[in-house]
Amino acid sequence: MDRGFLFGDGIYEVFPVYGNRIIGLDSHLNRLQDGLDAINIKNPHSKDEWIELINKVISLNTKNKNQAIYLQISRGCDENRKHTYGELKPTIYIQSSAIESREKDSLKSGKSAITREDIRWLKSYTKATSLLANTLYAQEAKENNAEETILYRDGIITEASSSNVLIVKDMCIFTHPKGSNILPGITRDKAIECAKVNDINVIESSFTKEQLMDADEVWITSSTREILPITSIDGIQISSGYAGPIWSLVYDQYQSLKF
Ligand code: PDD
Questions:
Q1: Confidence tier at 20 by pLDDT (50, 70, 90)
Q2: Residues 215 and 110 in one domain
Q3: Which residues line ligand 1 (CB under 6 A)?
Q4: Do 127 and 250 fall within a single domain?
Q5: What is the pTM of this model?
Q6: Buried b (16+ CB within 10 A) or exposed e, 49-63
Q7: Containing domain of residue 22, as a range?
């Protein structure tokens, strides 16, 4: 009778952990709160309590130095399946899994992506557990031997099935602004910070599918995939077909957050 199971009625977070360092801990906890507020679930824990629970799970995974902590809060169990809800006790689930480490050299030829129309709801800024559209897009990518499905709405690139999308054109980074159409990715924010540290201009404004295809560099960002170069989209080579120099700078800067 858990509404997380019956309706996908819940919010989740994924925290990247390197050794004992959680990247963007406070930002992830703030986004968790925003998500719970957006769907009217009372946060069952204070920030300090969450940090204690997360650290406990981190310490229990003795096999993996680099971990992704998955935290899910569903609205809880009801007596019957009904769409409406009353006051329920939220269900909490926390899991640790390994973050696959990829050597920089192995990323230089980049990854491929496909594109699809973004038909998701207009609360894509919430990290809701109801991810059916996203999982179908991810599966389509897999079936096309691609890393990701990049999404567009009315010709504008929004994000990807489980990552944000950034492009580089003429030494300037562009990425869709925050709002109803994208998840405000923490790695996206970190990549922007890392670019600014290197004096690279960043403009948070939308770009078209044509601009995506014509970009000097295309990257996707997520807590588990970090910053990945995309060098082929829908079977068409992007720019040189190799990860670009701006990616290399920002990637190195991001690596320094781990230590
Ligand atoms: N996904 N956009 C979507 C739709 C996402 O699902 C994610 C992350 C991101 C990137 O957000 P962040 O940089 O904060 O990880 C953007 C996680 C990793 C997941 O669903 O497993």
A1: confident
A2: yes
A3: 14, 134, 159, 162-164, 183, 185-188, 221-224
A4: yes
A5: 0.98
A6: ebeeebeebbeebee
A7: 3-98
Among residues 50, 79, 98, which one ends one of the domains?
98
What DSSP string runs through 126-181? Answer: S-BS--HHHHHHHHHHHHTT-SEEEEEETTEEEEETTBEEEEEETTEEEEPPSSTT
The CA 182 to ligand 1 mean position distance, Å, reads: 10
Q: Which atom of ligand 1 is nearest to the CA of 164?
A: 16
Of 98, 114, 145, the position where a domain reaches its end is 98
CA–CA separation, 93 vs 11, rounded Å? 11
Output the CA 149–ligand 1 centroid distance in Å: 13
Mutational test site, ligand 1, from 11, 162, 189, 221, max ligand atoms within 8 Å of CB: 162
CATH code where residue 17 lies: 3.30.470.10
Q: Structural domain tally of the chain?
A: 2
Residue 101, pLDDT above cutoff 90: no
- Please give the positions annotated as active site: 127
Q: What ligand 1 atom has the least distance to the C-alpha of 28? A: 14
